[in-house]
Structures are given as structure tokens and as C-alpha cells.
Amino acid sequence: MKHFQVLIALLALSGTVQALADSARPQLSADQTALYSYAEVLKYKGAAGHEVTDPWDPLSETADLPVDYVVDQTGKANGKSHFHSVQAAVDQAVREGANLAAKGRKRIVIQIKPGTYHELLYVPSTTLPITLEGDGADAGATRISADLDAAVSGAEYSRRFGAQFVDAAPSSRAMYAALKDKLMVETVGSAVTWIKSDGFQARNLTFENAYNKAQGDAKAECPPGGCASVMVNGVAQVVHHQAVALMVDGADRVQFDNVRFIGFQDTLYLKSQATGITSRSFFDHSYVEGDVDFIFGDTTAYFYRSEIKSLGDRSTSYVVAPATNYQTRYGFVFESCRFTHDDQANSLAGKFYLGRQWFHSQRCTPYAPLAVAGYQCTLGNKDFYQAPQGSITQSVLETVGKTVILHSQIGAHINREHPWSNWNAPGALAYRPVQYDSDSYWHNLQNAGIDPIEALHYESRKVPVESFLAEFEDTDGP
Hints:
Blueprint: H1 5-13, H2 38-41, E1 44-47, E2 52-53, E3 69-71, E4 82-83, H3 86-102, E5 108-112, E6 115-118, E7 121-123, E8 130-134, E9 142-146, H4 154-161, H5 170-180, H6 186-189, E10 193-195, E11 201-209, E12 246-249, E13 254-262, E14 268-271, E15 277-278, E16 280-284, E17 287-290, E18 292-297, E19 300-304, E20 307-310, E21 318-322, E22 332-335, E23 338-341, H7 345-348, E24 353-356, E25 376-379, E26 384-386, E27 389-392, H8 394-397, E28 403-406, E29 409-410, E30 420-421, H9 438-447, E31 469-472, E32 475-476
Parallel strand pairs: 3-4, 3-5, 5-8, 6-9, 7-10, 8-11, 9-11, 10-12, 11-13, 12-14, 13-16, 13-17, 14-18, 16-19, 17-20, 18-21, 19-22, 20-23, 21-24, 22-28, 23-29, 24-30, 25-27, 28-31, 29-32
Antiparallel strand pairs: 1-2, 1-15, 26-27
């Protein structure tokens, strides 16, 4: 296929490609790792299969820039250069961006004094990219925090947060308006910080969704047997606990340096602007914590020299839930990271997972039968299910999910033999088996009665095999 000609050529030069599907813990060869270097992964953007080369080196971007606005909740605000809230400073940056750009400015820097800012932060598309810099001794000294989960109604959301958007810039207020009348704000609306601006940067800060943080997340536990045991109607039992700390929504070249992301389920959401559109995020010396699917989405993201901590409140935990498109070059890549845990009993049981591939937007599964008379889930032009029949689209089938972990330390909380999980269990409406590589994907489709060539119009199976889930030279941690 044209969209992987370059990738296939590089793999062919590297020699024999390992058959990854034969192992529940597939490994890359040393030659293959060149495809997952920092420079290579961050080089592409655009439509899946038609991505363009756009080299990006975030580590070379200077952090020594003049400060334009200061946020200090205990200081004196003037509405021009000094503000009490982070949102107010962002709104000023939105309003003044065009004027500053005309004067030759390339970026707006907002310095945030230490403290906890109890607010939502919405950053719309901006004329100039914005940098937020915490002015504390460490990332924990400056915190943007709110308590908001997916089950909150639009009316309650408006009651809690509407006041802060009364005088907001029109584009910021439009983001708020998109949620205030909804029955529930859902996962997207639960984001405490919502980023839509290309080139956004954050340094030395904490972004927190405080939902359940006072008492822990044990009450969000899945039915007996863990989350993977949820059956036909079980999805409804677990959808009310998503609580996003930060969402990157379609923004490209987004960078985080020494930033902490605090939450439980769905802490960090990396979302493309449309299915199959590649945008890029970079995380360096950062920290992400959570319990279920707490790094998820369909964009390309590179995590470097960072800590990823699984919290053990629930008996089943998944670190990542990638929904990468089949034709997109890269999903999530972790290099020189530490996958740690919190020493709770559930963590120490060693049964947690590195991840499961998000079966995004599905309404039924073609991969296994259900205990429903006459059940069918066939390829169609829309995703729906009305018992006993439904259909699934090609775009949903192609949310294969890709994650590679290199030179990292993986703690004892992760299942050593089977670190990658199915998406739910056979018999669940949302079930899909783990897909380690392009051959797994191909065989799963065939087993489901979907011919990849006749039904999905692929030219052929990928040769050599492309990895979806893999590791290289990872070590065991405590």
C-alpha cells in the first residue's frame, strides 16, 4: 500500500522482521528501533496514509523567553498584564495575539505563580502559540485543578463553571457553550484543561482532575472479575468515572516539559481533530498517573524520560488505550521511561496491564458471539446496535492502537507474561482481541468473516509485518 511504502522499505533494509504475533510480549529487533527514534516519530503529520514530512525537534526549542503575562491569585490584577486566573491570561493572549504577531512576536509566555488554581482552562486555536510556565520550585508547586467527571450534567457543569466564562474571549466561551446544554458532558467535557492551540507548551506545572482524589477510586471498581469481564450491557456500569486532567484536541506540536498529570480514569486524552489525522505531542521529564486507560487517544505522542504511575485502587488497571488508525505511522512511543506503581495491594498482585487497544466508537463486535438470539454484527456504513443486530464501519475496524516501549523500566505491577490485554472479554458487546501486529489484525478480520481485500479494499497484507504493540530492551523494575 502506498501509505506504508517508506516504512516497508526501511523495514526491509533492516533484515528479517520478527514474527511478533507468536508472542504475548513481542520484541523489536535492534534494527527496527531506528524507526522509533525521537526524530523519526515526530517527523510526520497529516492524513493517515498521506502524511507529510514536517521535522520537529521540541528539545531544541528554548525555554528562555520574555514573560508577557503574570498570573498570581494573591497579587494585584490589572486585566492587561497581571491576572488572578490562568483562563483570564489565556483570553488576553487570544485577544492580543494578532497585534503581537504583527509586531514580530512568535510566542506568548504566561508565567503562573505558585498555588492551586481551582478552575477550568480552555485554550482555543490562537494566532500565536502560548507557553504556560509555573514559577514554583517544582512542578507540584503550581497546580490547575478542578473536580469534573463525565457523568456531570450540562446544567451542573454550567452552575459550577459558567461564571468563569462570562467575560472570556469568544473562542474560549464557544468551547464552554458546546458543553453547557448537554445531558452529560461525557469524556471530552470532563477535561479540566482543554488544548486546541497548535504549538502550545507547558513547563513546570501540574494539571489535575480532582475527581475521587479525596477518597480514592475504589468505588469505581468494575463488576467481580475486573473490567475485562463486563458483558453485554456492562459498558453502562463503567462509563461514569472518566475524568480527564488534560486533553490535547487536534493541536499539533504540543510540548510538555516537567509537567505532572494527576487523575484516575482517562487522565490524559490525546485526540485528533478527525479520524486518521496525525498530530503530535511530546512529553519530557514528565509524570502521568491513573488507574484505567489513563493515557489514551489516537494521535502520535512521544514520552521521553518520564514516569508513568499506575494507581492500585481498582483490581484491574490499564496504562494506555491507543486508538491509532491502521494507516497512521505511529501511535504512542515511550523511551527511557519508568512504569511505576503505588505499592497498594492491587498493584503488588502483578496483574495490571500496559494497555489495551481502544475499540473506539464501536457499537457491536464481529469478533465473538454474544448470548443474544440471532446476534449479528456486520460491516456497514454506520456504527449502531439494536438487538440483536448491528453494524460496524471500516474506520472503527481500523482503530488498531499502536504502542512501542523502548529502554524503559517496567514495574512488578505489570503482568510479566501478558502485559497487553483484549478490549473487554469474549461475550461483551465491546470485545476485540489484542492485535499485536498487522498479521494479527488481518487474521482477526478473516476470523470475523470480513475479507480485508474484498470488503476493505486493501491491496495486500503488509510485508514485512508491521508492529502494533512491541518493546525493546525494557527491564524489570520493583
